[in-house]
Design a protein that fits this description.
Elements: H1 3-12, H2 26-38, E1 42-48, E2 54-59, H3 62-74, H4 78-85, E3 89-92, H5 93-99, H6 101-110, E4 115-120, E5 129-135, H7 138-142, H8 146-165, H9 180-199, H10 203-216, H11 221-230
Antiparallel strand pairs: 1-2, 1-5, 3-4, 4-5
Length: about 240
């Protein structure tokens, strides 16, 4: 076992905080252990299901969780690129600016992160499941040995697979893919369904409308979706120009 994998497992053995000992919190605990083991500032896990649909399943901290929401709101980014290519890839803030200007502006304005290293998990979970490693500067990522990242990603994959096998057969039991972040993203899928009917669009176009509204109002799609599901926002209003546009 590599030193990095050993550090990861050691960090994972730290007793869970109150309320974080259930299986639904496994991804967030894995992310914290990963960030600590490889020496980055944050880590986040997400599942990709095609057509730009992605579900976060855990993050090392709230700031990193928000960075994932910004990528999802932009509709593209390092995480999706790693999924599409099946390869690990590093983007610094200027790379992000060249590829996704709106994501660049959001990361600069709302997070301290200036570089992202997106890595597919090992089979059988990768490239469906991706881990994003975030850093406040590119030097942090370039200093991380790629062998360390690979060793930690393999061990993280093994832990997730092991957690899957340990899930009780009772369908009411919590599972790691039913994490709080995943449940929040499920509200987006609910809102998309409601808005699809109201706007007479297909799912992909409706999601694009939600993203455009989120961008125009300086919010993330998850927050706009919550307003639709709760009844605070009539999806028909998404057709209307936002004040100040």
């Amino acid at each position: 076992m590599s030193d990095a994998a050993g550090r990861f497992l050691e960090a994972l053995r730290v007793p869970a905080e109150p309320g974080e000992d259930g299986p639904e919190m496994v991804p967030s605990r894995l992310c914290r252990a990963c960030a600590e083991a490889v020496g980055v500032d944050g880590a986040a896990l997400s599942i990709h299901e095609g057509a730009g649909l992605r579900t976060p399943i855990g993050a090392s901290d709230p700031t990193t969780s928000h960075a994932e929401q910004l990528q999802f709101t932009a509709g593209d980014g390092p995480c999706l690129r790693a999924h599409d290519t099946g390869s690990a890839i590093v983007f610094d803030i200027e790379d992000i600016n060249r590829n996704w200007p709106s994501l660049h502006a959001a990361l600069l304005g709302e997070t301290p992160y200036r570089a992202v290293y997106s890595v597919p998990l090992a089979p059988p979970l990768g490239p469906t499941v991706i881990v994003d490693l975030y850093a406040r500067d590119l030097a942090t990522l370039t200093a991380v040995p790629r062998d360390d990242v690979e060793a930690v990603v393999v061990t993280m994959t093994e832990e997730l697979v092991r957690s899957s096998g340990a899930v009780a057969s009772d369908e009411s039991s919590a599972r790691w893919w039913d994490s709080p972040d995943a449940r929040r993203r499920n509200r987006v899928w609910q809102a998309t369904g409601v808005a699809t009917v109201a706007l007479g669009l297909d799912v992909v176009d409706t999601l694009a409308v939600l993203r455009a509204h989120a961008f125009a109002t300086g919010r993330v799609v998850d927050d706009v979706a919550e307003d639709i599901v709760s009844g605070r926002l009539d999806p028909v209003e998404l057709r209307e120009p936002v004040a100040g546009e």
